[in-house]
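User: I'm putting together notes for a lab meeting next week and I want to include a structural view of one of the chains we've been expressing. I don't have a solved structure, so I'd like a prediction I can at least talk through. The sequence is below, exactly as it appears in our construct file.
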Amino acid sequence: MNLGNFFRELKRRVLFSVVLAFAFVGFCSRAGGQNGASIDETARLLAGIPVTGALASFTQNSGWQGHAAAMDKAWKTKEYFQLGPIASWMSSHAGEYYRSSGTMYYMFSGPDFLYAYTFFPDADTYILAGLEPVGQVPDLSRMNADTLNANLGALRNAMSTLLVTHYFVTEEMRAEIGRSNLNGTLPILYVFLARLGCTVLDTAHISSPAEGVRITFSHGGRSQTLYYFKTDLSGGNSAFLRWCAARGPGVSLIKAASYLMHGEGFSGVRNFLLEHSTFIVQDDSGIPLRAFNKSWALEFYGRFVPHGEKFGKYDQQALAEIYQRNPPPPELGFASGYWWQAERGILILAQRK
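Assistant: Thanks for the context. Below is the predicted structure for the 353-residue chain, given as structure tokens.
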């Protein structure tokens, strides 16, 4: 190689190394936080909570202030009708498990960390799974106010059904976040963490055992970990379920699960929960009664109301008979299941003997 070619090759390699280094730095900042603001500031701004620092100027904008007012109103209603009553109910009816500090499983959850934390606030590790994409949160400090406001509107719309009732409508959520720069589950997880009073410490995108995100957060000075995985729960012995099994036994929440585990197509995740849960709280859309053997003690609360055309084929006669007893199971006092009225709420507690 002559001297001219040597220096041209050296220049090319140096430039390539610099580009690679900047690409790596960019990847880490996207996974771990924002270039211009901390992850926690980002979460708080999305949640409609005042911030200082790099994002403070957005809070002076009337669009963000409208977002904050809407979130405040929705949150107060949510706390009054759902979050507060559930926390009180769990504390008095399942106190040992409510304060469990181990692993918490929430299959078919989507980004619903809100109820995972409300039912089990002290878990060391939360494992959520659904079909919704992980998504991303871009550097908000680089957005203009109009772009941010449009994205915040889409974010509120994506969460609207859960904030009014107590479950996501996946199609609605996908339609809204698909039109936004704040796409996937991650921005919604941030909103719930911030509104629950948690401090987001670190976020990392992961690829094993499935595409997912790991969020480290703290509450009251104690560090906890939230995983969300985008994964198909149908079938049997998946890499995801094997990874979960290594996390040890835990407590489980099943809510608005579309009765998927009533069929054999989801027998793998059903069997996993039965084998790796010490305690399960669910509505009637979760594991059917016939799947619980004599090693489980079941308690029933609320009311059973047939679902009619949409889910009527999953109405369980054995469950209906339990709720027709005289006297019937105790009232819940809050909505649960696919009904949004408090007087129609239903919960089943399953405790391993």
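A couple of points you could mention at the meeting. The chain has a mean pLDDT of 86. Residues 106 and 253 are 5 Å apart (CA to CA).

User: Perfect, that's what I needed.
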